[in-house]
Design a protein that fits this description.
Function: Nucleoside triphosphate pyrophosphatase that hydrolyzes dTTP and UTP. May have a dual role in cell division arrest and in preventing the incorporation of modified nucleotides into cellular nucleic acids.
Cofactor: a divalent metal cation
Bound molecules: thymidine-5'-triphosphate
Number of helices: 6
CATH topology: Maf protein
GO biological process, one term: nucleotide metabolic process
Catalytic activity: dTTP + H2O = dTMP + diphosphate + H(+); UTP + H2O = UMP + diphosphate + H(+)
GO molecular function: dTTP diphosphatase activity; UTP diphosphatase activity
Number of domains: 1
Distance between the termini: 13 Å
Amino acid sequence: MKNIILASSSPRRKELLKRYNLDFEIIASQIEERVLPYEEPVQVVMTLAFQKADDIAKRINKDAIVIAADTVVYLDSILGKPKDEEDAFHMLGSLSGKEHLVITGLALIDTSIGKKIVDYETTKVKFRELTPEKIRSYISTGEYKDKAGAYGIQGYGDILVEYIIGPYSNVVGLPIAKLDKLLEKHFCMKIL
Ligand SMILES: Cc1cn([C@H]2C[C@H](O)[C@@H](COP(=O)(O)OP(=O)(O)OP(=O)(O)O)O2)c(=O)[nH]c1=O
């Protein structure tokens, strides 16, 4: 069995991967996540996921498969993590009553042979019409922090969502089915 390294500081990614039949180590990448305004969201998440995986692949001195991901919310423009409560208020207000996309880039690097695979997954999420009171109540839970689009569907944020089309784990930050497919196809490995 190959060594697996999850290059992530995200507790959500760790929890999603821990459910499966896979021993892995966590080493968070230190890259500065810079989004250029003219880039397409798919390009952005794949580039950032690759930079995270590559950062760790270059720093470790052993054979391993390094897995990294990057998630953004997209509605006319890219919504990353909110800077503060006001930013979260504006983000959630702009998502109210509309469909948006959650896009996660996934990067896998096998350091033993230098193989690099980058892909992405998309999930459509429709929000309810949200009153300013509802948005404020949600923000007061504190769960908006550190999450793309200022919500977490896995927590109180579920109350904001009317429906989703596509994989749930992708919204939480690690598209498990896509990861399994890529591992199977390119690295002859399964996570279940
Ligand atoms: C939309 C949404 C995002 N998120 C999270 C997933 C990601 O952790 C975060 C997006 O930030 P990312 O920059 O993708 O990841 P991160 O900084 O948390 O972790 P790392 O780069 O070290 O891997 O938003 C949820 O947890 N639930 C949701 O419903």
